[in-house]
Amino acid sequence: MRYGLLYLVVSLFVFVGLVNSDSIEFDVYSGEDQVEVDDSLSYKYDQLSNNSLLWGPYRTALYFGIRPRIPRSLLSGLMWFNADGYNTIGDFRHFYEQGDNMGKANWVQYDPRIGGRQVITDNDCHIDITIDFVKSNDGRSWGVKVKSTPHAGYENIKTSFVWYSGLEGKRDDVQDGQFEDPEAEVDISGAGYFRLDNEKDVKGHEGTVKFSGISDGLGLFELEINDGPKSNKHPVSKYLVDPELDPKKSHHYSLNVPDDNVWKAKDIFMTMLQDSIQDLLTKHGELDKFPPEQLFIMRDIQNFEGNLHYIQKMYQGSAEFDIIFNNALTPQDDKITFDNIKDKIKTTLSSFDSKFEKHFSPSKPFNKKKYNTFGKEIVSGLLGGLSYFYGDHLVDRETVFDEDSFESYELKGQTEGPYELFTFVPSRPFFPRGFYWDEGFHLLPLLEYDSDLVLEVVKSWFNLIDDEGWIAREQILGPELRSRVPEQFQVQSPEIVNPPTLMLVFSSLLEKSRAFQVDEPAKAKGGYGGMESFNQEDLGSIIMNNPEVLTNFTKQIYPKLKLHYDKFRSTQQGYVEEFDRGTNLEAYRWRGRTSTHSLASGLDDYPRALPADIAELNVDLLSWIGVMTRSIKLVAELVGYEDDYKQLAEIELNIIKNLNDLHWSEEHKTYCDLSVNEDDENVYVCHKGYISLFPFLTKLMPIEDVDKLEHLVDMILDPEELWTDFGLRSLSKSDKYYGTAENYWRSPIWININYLVLDSLQYYKAESSYKASKSLLDKLGKAYSQLRVNLVDNIFKQWQKTGFVWEQYDDTTGEAKGAKNFLGWTSTVALMMNMPEKI
Ligand SMILES: *[C@@H]1O[C@H](CO)[C@@H](O)[C@H](O)[C@H]1NC(C)=O
Ligand SMILES: *[C@@H]1O[C@H](CO)[C@@H](O)[C@H](O)[C@H]1NC(C)=O
């Protein structure tokens, strides 16, 4: 019986892929009666996936911070400072900050399933730091090697490293290091203990310092920090002012901190250090005789023991040390040791290289030799932004926006949650949190590379859809993230939405898995027999080979997605009949705008109708809702909700119709927003730029509309409008708002939109070729090839020059602007390199 059902699922995939979706018949599934599918595959997939992604440098707001994907658990981080002077401690590194004077700070070879390498060039501390992160095969244990090399001319520099680990969560039934009821180990949420195994010694420790702990989710574990090879040097002082300040030793300090406070590790450290210095001053009367490498050693003056532990080291010249974490469940031969970590690093880096090279290979004119390192860093940096967040956030469900004045509004938040989120971030130093609009772009370069990982992130986001169908635009979960967002931006409102890019990705996943089954039916059939035998090595492409795992998830999530879609449309509905615009109601207006900004649109300060008016209709929003409709239609088709499918297909047609009827201006030869004048007559609001391209960018402009296509391509190619040598600018040079005010989306080049342009040029060149003139086809081809080269060349050049990729690029000079290490949707450059040279 079970066999038969699986067969039905597989044949459905083959079947829906082959027929034209408009004429599809639903004789396999009907909406109401749920087909039972054996869930063991989904379960097995989940288990493999959870283990493989359990640990990672998921505290991405730090230069280096490790945590597991468990709400309250063991949080670790690395900090450092220069100890040559009394002031250099001012450059104490912990959070990755935009303003820090770094030549580079990024993962250069990294994958969350494998591990990898981060490289940091700290130009204030005058050192290069290499951080290698490796994992055991079972995913439960890990190791880190920290290596620092002084810059030329600074060979004898003194550097202090501080490692901390803190266990969060509470568990009351621990007695003398044992659970009272060991059986309960996996059920009760919360932590056990985490303590120093070495004998406490206020004078410091020589050699390895060892800790052990137990907690739910982790079970029993050990953490060890060594003092590295004999070649390490410590500062040598003529005499020790105080026996507790020996820079040759590793110094330990521990204290108890409540949940949600381990992230303040640096502030706590600084406070302790101040206490210590104050105490030394009292004891010795003056501080002049303390060299900085002694003065800045933390002392264990309170003799506390708690859930947060620090280990501080003081080195001179180059240095190297390791931290290893072993779970008791990891088999002995899979454990990380100080002896095998070097070999593990080697295999980790070469595994990453082969996975990368399997999926990314630059096409002409970008040769592999020159662009491979760049490509690896882009993909690693994107993956290095993979984060796990847990905490509550602030929501205002009361405030109704004043739509008479469109004054800026002040939201008052109530706490909701806690929630968890597994997501990428736009920029570790500047935007280390989840953004709904960015996330779809983050996932695009990974669709081929690791579709299973894409699904995990999509799942995590969709889990956040609340009972009303809403997902907050920005995910500012917990006090750590809130500490980095100005107060007026912390509160989220259910009235405000954001471009639904995740839907685009989710439907791509479904389409890909479907195409895969159709293109390789033999394999699919073979896979059918072997389905239950996938294992860890297959992670990355399990859902592509076993689409029922994806179908299962899709069925579960469908009701929530539909709710999200309905909520999205109903909150953003625009006026149609009230302003004599016909009877087709598919027309929308971004809520929450002010006279200068529409944060909801994602294109914050892009010029819109002035004065703002409730009659406004936005072409980009209608396009996004078109994308959403298409995606959810595909999902409905897949899970067999025929009524929904029919209704969605009709909405889609109406959207396409209104993009033309309401938003195409024959006078301006472009797509525009719509509003009304003083006499309530409809007027187009045309600011040529990214917004004018939206029906084209989202492939909702009909392929037979070659006249429109030609007008848009002419605008794209015109240097007086959008064309520059570095990519397409956001707002036309001819617009009166070009380059004005804060100039965020009013001239700079943004890489996400440029990627969509390349993708659409490719699409229309192929799909419209039957109707397009030779000269139009030539223009499409030329725009594509030249734009691709301009973009990649400039991003590459700026990366060489600055050590980073950026949020935006200047449209006159190509220079990098905005947030740094923006990997982030600028990482779509990896896809651009992979795209064909010519179309
Ligand atoms: C799908 O997977 C989930 C989670 O693994 C399981 O609970 C559920 O029973 C499965 N559903 C079907 C229809 O197989
Ligand atoms: C995998 O992790 C998710 C999220 O933490 C959890 O809900 C799920 O139960 C886990 N599945 C398995 C099989 O362990």
CATH architecture of the domain at 58-359: Distorted Sandwich
Low-confidence stretches: 1-38, 182-190, 521-530
Question: What is the CATH homologous superfamily assignment of the domain at 58-359?
Answer: Glycosyl hydrolase family 63, N-terminal domain
Mean pLDDT across all residues, rounded? Answer: 90
Largest sheet: 8 strands, antiparallel
Specify the CATH class of the domain at 58-359.
Mainly Beta
Summarize it.
This protein has 839 residues and is an alpha+beta fold. The protein contains 20 helices and 27 strands. It is 34% helix and 18% strand.
What does this structure look like?
There is one protein chain. With 839 residues, this protein is of the alpha+beta class. The protein has a domain at 58-359: Glycosyl hydrolase family 63, N-terminal domain (Beta-galactosidase, Chain A, domain 5, Distorted Sandwich), CATH 2.70.98.110. It is built from 20 helices and 27 strands. The strands form eight sheets. The protein has an eight-stranded antiparallel β-sheet. A hairpin with a 4-residue loop joins strand 5 (115-122) and strand 6 (127-135). The protein is elongated. 50% of the residues are buried. Mean pLDDT is 90; it is low at 1-38, 182-190 and 521-530. This is Mannosyl-oligosaccharide glucosidase.
